[in-house]
Amino acid sequence: GQSMVAVKKALEAMGSPKQIHIASVIGATEGIAFVTEHFAANTHLWIAAVDEKLNEKGYIVPGLGDAGDLAYGNKLQH
Hints:
The protein is an alpha+beta fold.
């Protein structure tokens, strides 16, 4: 959610869209709440799968971040 809010802030200099559509393969309830809090009502969130919660580091485990850790470094310890 924080990355999406950062992009939104960067794009605000270009104007305000009539609608915003955000598509995500996976999300967590905390991220959905964060996006809902920081985006206007004209935002539509499309998520294929919702994970119940994030771990203490803010990751969905196992999840896409876990796949990145496996490809580029050590596996997270859960």
